[in-house]
Amino acid sequence: MNPRHGSKPIVCDESPGKKAYCQCGHSEKLPYCDGAHSRLQTGVTPIVIEVTDAGKKAVCQCHKSGTLPWCDGTHSKLGA
Ligand code: FES
């Protein structure tokens, strides 16, 4: 488990545009990347995508989703 990522998604009211979602778990602005992966040389880079539609999005924090960066419910099948 990454340091700040949990076992449940972060739900955010997303707006369209280019987004970078943290994958290293060290960002202070989760679910977004704040550059911590570079500062800490984690070797893990964010998922950068173009969000095309506004609305509530569940951003995966367990890293097991089949539809990263979005939650697909896989976290609910994982053990504690
Ligand atoms: S947080 Fe839901 S699948 Fe990862």
Total E-strand runs? 4
Classify the beta-strand content into a percent band.
Answer: 25-35%
Regions with little confidence, pLDDT below 50 for 5+ residues: none
The tally of helices reads: 1
Query: What is the molecular shape?
Result: globular
Strand order of the largest sheet: 1-4
Helical fraction equals under 10%
Largest sheet: 2 strands, antiparallel
Q: What Rg is obtained from the alpha carbons, in whole angstroms?
A: 12 Å
Provide the number of structural domains: 1
Bound molecules: FE2/S2 (inorganic) cluster
Alpha-beta content class:
mainly beta
Q: What does this protein structure show overall?
A:
There is one protein chain. This protein has a two-stranded antiparallel ribbon. It has a two-stranded antiparallel ribbon with strand order 2-3. The mean pLDDT is 92. The radius of gyration is 12 Å and the shape is globular. The chain has one helix at 36-39, and strands at 10-14, 17-21, 47-51, 55-59. The longest helix has 4 residues, at 36-39. It has 80 residues and is mainly beta.
